[in-house]
Amino acid sequence: MSAGMAGKAELDAARLLLARVGISPADLVEVAAARPPAPTFAEYVPVVAGAVSAGTRRAYGSYWKRVVEHWGQRRLDEPTPSEIERLAEYVKTHVVARRNARGGRSAAEHLIAALRCLYRRAVADGFILESENPALKVAKPRRLPSTRRALADTRVAEINEVAASTGDDPALDSLLLRLHSETACRRGGALALRPVDLDPDQCLVLLREKGETVRWQPVSPTLMRYLQRHAEQRHATETGPLFRYRSGQPITYRRYDHLWVRIGEHLPWVHAQQISTHWLRHTTLTWVERNFGYAVARAYAGHSSSGGDAGTTATYVRATIHEVAAALATLTGEPHPLA
User: Among 58, 61, 121, 331, fewest CB within 10 Å belongs to which?
Assistant: First the structure.
């Protein structure tokens, strides 16, 4: 059978199927025509930005702004996968140069992720079909292995010494570093911490981090006292941010930026390797894994046990909060009520 005859047979079969269910080809055309016209990027980006979480908005906001700059008056259904690839390449080559930049790969990856987020909303809102999503047809750049690693004890001691002896608020900076070293929390978890999230009886803090994850994390009695004292002295409200400047204003991510720039000015290796708060997370979790095993380290990190990389064994060796508290007590040398 020729290709033409095969194609005609398939069309005849499709017409027969439509006739049996009472649908005509004209009905299909009318349904397609009934779809609302796709908005422009300038119109739709603010809609999506207002619907997503603050973390998503912070991660993708600058990339959505770049999209609006280039395609603001174009409709969502106009750009092709090739055009998205060209825009990703443009962003990659025009990224702001930083010492920790890796050839703009991360910028290109985040642009594509931002567009995928945008188009997922457009599909849900009925502006385009799933099969018409051009962002899904563009591959993200392969992510390079992270350069972050656990720091030696002597290096961590140097960082803490500089933080405690320089700057305009060493008490604040030292407290931040201790919280991250003890809990391995992310910056977002520290900034979201509130006085109401402290449980001094059990020495637990409630951490709310990316992906809207929430978990109780053990802390040492000493850190708990420091956190309570800081909240009291800086006049933090029960449901407001705990970490504040002396003026009473809550700190932001900028405090971390200034902190590591200052530490890098005193410790050249910090500046050269672009050490950041996340390196402390690597340091603590590596120590926990070496001394208490993978299951406890996974719970210490607040990672979900249902993730694709969890491994089957993780469903049988899930660490309890008491095991995490035991790891913390050994880490800090202080007894813990749950250990």
Answer: 58
The radius of gyration computed from the CA coordinates of the chain, to the nearest angstrom, equals: 26
CA distance linking residue 53 with residue 219, whole number of Å: 28
The string of pLDDT tens digits covering residues 180-194 is 999 999 999 999 999
DSSP characters over 253-318: HHHHHHHHHHHHHH-HHHHHHT--HHHHHHHHHHHHHHHH-HHHHHHHHT--TTSTTS-GGGGTSP
**In 3-state terms, what secondary structure has residue 218?**
strand
Check: CB of residue 328 under 8 Å from CB of residue 218: yes
Q: Which strands, in side-by-side order, build the sheet including 213-218? A: 198-199, 204-209, 213-218
The model's pTM is 0.68
- Over residues 84-142, the pLDDT tens digits come to 999 999 988 887 655 545 445 788 899 999 999 999 999 999 999 999 999 999 988 77
324: phi then psi, degrees, rounded to nearest 5: -65, -40
Cβ contact 194:239 at 8 Å: yes
3-state secondary structure of 105: helix
Q: How far apart are CA 115 and CA 135, in angstroms?
A: 6
- Asked whether the beta carbons of 233 and 172 are under 8 A apart, the reply is no
- Number of residues in the chain: 339
Could you list the beta-strand ranges (E) of the chain.
198-199, 204-209, 213-218
Start-to-end CA span in the chain (Å) = 76
